[in-house]
């Protein structure tokens, strides 16, 4: 079991200050509800959920030791929702051989305001992975986007994730993808530890 860190902040030259903090369900519900119920978020699986149901889900996540949700802000403005989980404590862990040091993620980038910005998603994903992999006990990151979500799979592959098998989860057919800690650190130009 892991404890959610209080926050993480990183200045990215030419992009701004990116900070990641645990979701505060009651405080963040308006932003989260707006994002998860949009058509562009259909793969998140909450499009038809009521505001009360979304709040209930994030309050439940907030009560767990194995799953955590984070709101990411760029220069103080909310721009992404990230979730982490321990695969052995999640249905995905029943679909593949979980290794010691595996750590799962979900990510949702906020709807763009004023058009797309080149490198926006890649910068946020890179910052989130740096946050996740700051813990040296996390040796491999696993994600399981919906197998129909070609954009998410391509985005993760560009970040260094390697496709694994497709698996059937309770709510979707998923494409497992994996990123070894050493691959991320080498791509980031950081010393491999």
Characterize this entry briefly.
This protein has a single domain, classed as Aminopeptidase. It has 193 residues and is of the alpha+beta class. Helix content is 28%, strand content 30%.
Characteristics:
8-stranded mixed beta sheet, 30% strand, alpha+beta, globular, Aminopeptidase, 193 residues
CATH class: Alpha Beta
How many structural domains in the coordinates? 1
Spatial order of the strands forming the largest sheet: 1-2-3-4-5-6-8-7
User: In percent terms, what proportion of residues is strand?
Assistant: 25-35%
Q: Give the low-pLDDT segments.
A: none
The sequence of SSEs as H and E is EEHHEEEHEHEEH
What is the rounded Rg? 16 Å
Provide the helix percentage.
Answer: 25-40%
CATH architecture: 3-Layer(aba) Sandwich
Head-to-tail CA distance between termini: 22 Å
CATH topology, anyone?
Answer: Aminopeptidase
Number of strands: 8
The total of helices stands at: 5
User: Would you tell me the structural class of the helices and strands?
Assistant: alpha+beta
Write the layout of secondary structure elements.
Layout (H helix, E strand, L loop, with lengths): L7 E5 L3 E7 L2 H12 L14 H13 L3 E8 L2 E9 L16 E8 L10 H13 L7 E4 L6 H9 L3 E8 L2 E9 H8 L5
Parallel strand pairs: 5-6
Antiparallel strand pairs: 1-2, 2-3, 3-4, 4-5, 6-8, 7-8
Helix pairs in contact: 1-2
């Amino acid at each position: 079991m892991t404890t959610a860190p209080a926050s993480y902040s990183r200045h990215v030259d030419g992009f701004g200050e990116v900070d990641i903090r645990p979701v505060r369900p009651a405080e963040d519900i308006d932003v989260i509800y707006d994002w998860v119920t949009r058509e562009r978020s259909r793969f998140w699986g909450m499009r038809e959920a009521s505001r009360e149901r979304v709040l209930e889900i994030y309050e439940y996540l907030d009560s767990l030791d194995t799953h955590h949700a984070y709101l990411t802000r760029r220069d103080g403005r909310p721009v992404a929702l990230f979730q982490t989980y321990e695969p052995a404590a999640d249905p995905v862990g029943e679909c593949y051989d979980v290794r010691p040091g595996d750590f799962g993620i979900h990510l949702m980038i906020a709807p763009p305001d004023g058009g797309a910005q080149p490198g926006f998603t890649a910068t946020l994903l890179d910052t989130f992975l740096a946050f996740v992999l700051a813990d040296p006990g996390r040796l491999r990151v696993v994600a399981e986007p919906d197998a129909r979500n070609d954009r998410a799979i391509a985005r993760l592959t560009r970040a260094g994730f390697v496709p694994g098998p497709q698996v059937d989860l309770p709510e979707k057919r998923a494409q497992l993808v994996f990123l070894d800690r050493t691959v991320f650190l080498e791509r980031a130009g950081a010393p491999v530890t």
